[in-house]
Design a protein that fits this description.
- By secondary structure, the chain is an all-alpha fold.
- The protein contains ten helices and no strands.
- It has one domain.
- Helices cover 69% and strands 0% of the residues.
- Helix 2 runs antiparallel to helix 4.
- It is globular and about 60 Å long.
- It binds zinc ion (2 copies).
Length: 247
């Protein structure tokens, strides 16, 4: 699978761009976002989440190393490949300034896409195997562990919602990048156990809620992550509508 991607990336796309006389966009946009997420995660692991990092390594250094290998593979290899595809084939505007409405739309579509994929991976025997790796970290979490997922999960639950968002919203590249940065940063935040006691707005998935998801302690399943808490928003809307309907 990866070989096919690489052949397409390295050989077919440049040839196609030569024939069509269309400039091929630089590959480093996705790599920069990947490096920024990786280094922010490592920085957070070693500062705010230092005690969890020590605990995680003490519990199983092997699991921690396996996790970090997945993190690097996802952020430095897979992510940039998908980004390259979106940048070249979906995004048409590479000039305009950030448009916050476009960014908001990217984040909300990602939120729905992730929720759907995550729920499916918990409820369907067919998809569960892709999510098992991430749930090996149920006891102790650190920010970087947010990206310690199988390559299939990273593609299906993390990248596909961005691709669908880019296709539906047709954002400019700067709005799209900001959307990715928000989602990537919040993913690090919700995996920061040290932030469990922070008072969070209920509209968003808090580190406490996501830790409870990992440990199976949520009263109601919360598959939403890492931004909007769709289960909470849905239950509130249901109450509002039922009140309106009762009148
Ligand atoms: Zn899960
Ligand atoms: Zn998680």
């Amino acid at each position: 699978m990866k070989i096919k991607f690489l052949i397409n990336l390295l050989l077919l796309m440049p040839v196609k761009s030569l024939i069509l006389r269309k400039p091929i966009r630089a590959y480093h946009g996705g790599l920069e976002l990947g490096i920024a997420t990786l280094s922010t995660g490592i920085l957070m692991d070693n500062t705010i989440a230092k005690s969890s990092l020590i605990k995680l390594k003490e519990n199983s250094n092997e699991l921690y190393n396996d996790g970090m290998k997945k993190v690097i593979n996802n952020l430095i290899l897979l992510g940039p490949i998908y980004y390259f595809g979106v940048d070249n084939f979906i995004i048409s505007d590479h000039i305009s300034e950030i448009n916050l409405i476009e960014t908001f739309n990217i984040v909300i579509i990602h939120s729905f896409g992730y929720y759907t994929a995550h729920r499916l991976m918990h409820r369907s025997d067919l998809f569960r195997k892709y999510h098992n790796f991430h749930h090996k970290f149920n006891e102790t979490l650190t920010p970087s562990i947010g990206n310690a997922v199988s390559g299939s999960e990273f593609t299906f639950a993390y990248m596909t919602p961005f691709m669908i968002g880019a296709y539906l919203v047709d954002p400019n590249i700067n709005s799209f990048n900001l959307g990715i940065m928000i989602v990537a940063f919040m993913n690090l935040v919700i995996h920061t156990q040290e932030l469990s006691d922070v008072n969070y707005n209920k509209l968003f998935v808090s580190p406490k809620t996501h830790l409870n998801h990992h440990q199976g302690k949520n009263k109601k399943s919360t598959y939403s992550a890492p931004t909007f808490n769709l289960e909470y928003i849905y239950s509130e809307l249901k109450i509002i509508f039922s009140k309106l309907y009762d009148r």
